[in-house]
Amino acid sequence: MAVRIVFATGNKGKMREIKEILSDASVPILSMKEAGVETDVVEDGSSFMENSFIKARAVAARCKELGNTEDIVLADDSGLVVDALNGEPGIYSARYLGEDTPYSIKNAKIIERMEGVPDKERSARFVCAIACVMPDGRELSAEATYEGAIGYEEKGQNGFGYDPIFYLPDRGVYSAELDPDEKNRISHRGKALDKMRELLLKELGR
Question: Which of 44, 97, 162, 198 would suit a FRET pair with 24, their CA atoms being 20 to 30 Å apart?
Answer without folding.
Answer: 162
